[in-house]
RNA sequence: GCCCGGGUGGCGAAAUGGCAGACGCACAGGACUUAAAAUCCUGGGUCCCGAACGGGACGUGUGGGUUCGAGUCCCACCCCGGGCACCA
């Protein structure tokens, strides 16, 4: 961290007291608070609900709002915020009606954990953190409409979060429903009110309670038992994304998996739309790919393998007659939605390989396992299931190399050929995907192949690879020796063999043919599966939105399983006041200990009710905040429909790539439900999305030293010339200690431990593309920038940067570092560079030598020269185009070029200065306002019209173009800008050097692009 | 393993298929100064020839290709970063 910035340092250190108050210097500390106060006082950036007259359309530009952590703003935050701020300030000057709000995503675990540790209520911590974040954002001069600010923890806000939850609770997904949406599109599939759910007669007959339970099973919000990540050390339950490698993300404590009653949201009902409608979004392809990948749609077929009726005593397989009888029934009844208990239903993407199914595998948790287990196998199966249950998902995947499993002792019958197929259980089949059961085709699936080889199960090839096919790396790796021949699995498409009547059919034809045949026979049907699972929507936390739901209790005070929703006038359901929650050491929610007055009530009909005590996850509040900003104070609706129509969707949304999947997928899901229910008018919430890249810490040079050497300090200075202990970074093996999560280093040849040593730049030299230790060319030094983190001590605090250089410098530097989307390392010397640029701008217009702040005498009311005008218009053009494409780094370069050229003018026309100040203003608004004022303007420049460029003033009469001979640059000639290619060729031939290269050669061809270049193609 | 990004001076980077390295940092030299800071000016991809003016060869991770011409397009590979990872 650099200390005070040099000019300030010199002011303070200089004994000349006059300099302490030297106003004329570029003094960010004086200018910035002044203009921030001005904008606040005049509400300069307040967005009215109605556009000003003459408005050129509206623009909604949104930052991903922050979680106000106790650590305050990170330099990563202002990166995206500056980019959006520049966009907004520019748009306002172009006459747009701009919505640019900010708020706080303030529910969440840290404040709760802080409360457990210190006893300070999360609401207090949250308020303090928000105050600090707001102070820091205002300090950076962002043009937010602060009148729209809110926090997800405000009851006025979460009232509507609860309201939207009740909409989800009140909605079921009708996949067949055909309708015309608000945009006029024809659609199939819609989220509909639960009262429109058709109740089957058999349910209706069982009475009111049965109907309610039937409805509950179909809602988008439903209850299920799901394993939670219980962390005893934190005394809390964690979300999946808060668990990394089986440990808590915060603190690294071990996590256990326990089943608990949970709220789920049926996001899978929208999986197809979430995947398909990405096409409409102007988003980075990488983010779309990430989401599609996450949704993981695969098409295939569900197929039933017959196991026969349950019998006592247990039989190992059904008889042939039973199988034939079952087929006859199925032929008549068709394929049932519910498989029943006479079949194992499997999902496969390769129904064409049915003839190659040599065994089946059930997930250990599959409900049919018990029934299919024979007496002889009972012991082994039970042991395996116990073992599998104890393993976390991670342990399961960790053991990927070794396939494990147990035979149940029973067989199922393959519907296409009537062959008895052994049924195994194995943990490589997941209960939560597909039907939790597979048909194994070892010849054409690598996992099945490995399993079959391990347990010596038969392998039947049913797909012939195309002629000349070479097995892939993985396929080759699994090859086995088969009577002297190599036998490999094959996972690609080809031609059917060993498949009865289908022999010779290409895979791509086979799949639909057999799917159709199975469907006709009632034995299978086309099916689609997703990797995406339903969204676990409850948390066992205090600091989150309460659910607006009640559980009915029976006479003994036990829940009956029936629910009642709060009515919307009962919202918000606030957290209990004066409740000092403490961890009670159980995985169930802290609100279980809330006062009875909060927890219980009696309904008008006399039913005892108990509140739902789970709370919503942090995602809930961030799922719809972009809607509320358009109408933040509305007390009768979450948003006014007219305002929704006017502002939505968000035109530009900028935030970190860490939200590429979850936040963006969850908000799209909610938006689509609201769309189906008629509350919003577009199917997608965010039109254009940009991810700002991560800002890394300053690059560090590292070398390695044997740790066993005694007496050496951890610094190169201690033994700068001692070659004995140094290890080239190339010879160092890095591992992560599984217990501590710490990185460990070892000499890869000896295996001995080594330690990392920080090296200074002057101790390093470059040789052959690598950094090496000075004087030890064999010792390679690593240079890398790493993520900023407290533990590395390389975190840059925006407060410090602003104190030393000012907000305008911080803003400018963050934009100047490189492309917005790129990951890039912080370098404090770069801040210094942009600071110097701003100081040059100041001196270009202000008089530094004077005693008071006044205009530089070079700034005069005169007409600009042609050259000055060309410079100005070129700059306006470049900056304008760069802002529109968010190439903010090059926009700044262009302004630097302008200043480098213009500041050397003895006379600087005032009009040019004014235009330049306006161009600079979105980037460095404080300095620009100050100079604008100095140039004699009274009001803010925030709504001054953006300078227009005039193409005719940019054009030059002559241009210099390169001349090549055989593609190699041999000279440059100056030609008329509008000249033709013949003139360019003639000028090129006249050049001495070029002529020398053409001398005695035969010119085969001349390529002349007017105004660009000339190339002579010659032969000797 | 699969899916995305990305490899250009000492560093951050720039370049609609047409002068590689704009702009900035760091560095070196100079001016100003009693001195320093600040500021201003100058220089620079590498190697070679040359006292100098100047000129040549090579140069955007590696190897091929397309093209009059490739950092940019195509093929193969290597390395770095991110995401997913037994999803049938």
Q: Estimate the global geometry from the Cα principal axes.
A: globular
- Measured as a percent range, the helix fraction is 25-40%
Largest beta-sheet characterization: 8 strands, antiparallel
Radius of gyration: 35 Å
Q: How many individual β-strands? A: 43
Low-confidence stretches: 1-22, 714-722
- Per DSSP, the total helix count is 33
Separation of termini? 62 Å
Strand content: 15-25%
Mean pLDDT: 88
How does the helix and strand content classify structurally?
A: alpha+beta
Write a concise keyword list for the protein shown above:
1020 residues, alpha+beta, eight-stranded antiparallel sheet, four-stranded parallel sheet, 33% helix, 22% strand, disordered N terminus, RNA-binding
Task: Give a nutshell description of this structure.
With 1020 residues, the chain is an alpha+beta fold. Helices cover 33% and strands 22% of the residues. Strand 22 and strand 23 form a beta hairpin.
Structure explained in plain terms:
By secondary structure, the protein is an alpha+beta fold. The strands form 13 sheets. Strands 29, 30, 31, 32, 33, 34, 35 and 36 form an 8-stranded antiparallel β-sheet that branches. A hairpin with a 2-residue loop joins strand 35 (770-773) and strand 36 (776-784). Helix 3 (28-42) packs across helix 30 (925-934). The longest helix is centred in the last third of the chain and has 19 residues, at 866-884. It starts with 5 loop residues before the first helix and ends with a strand. Mean pLDDT is 88; it is low at 1-22 and 714-722. It binds one RNA strand of 88 nucleotides through helix 1, helix 11, strand 11, strand 15 and helix 16.
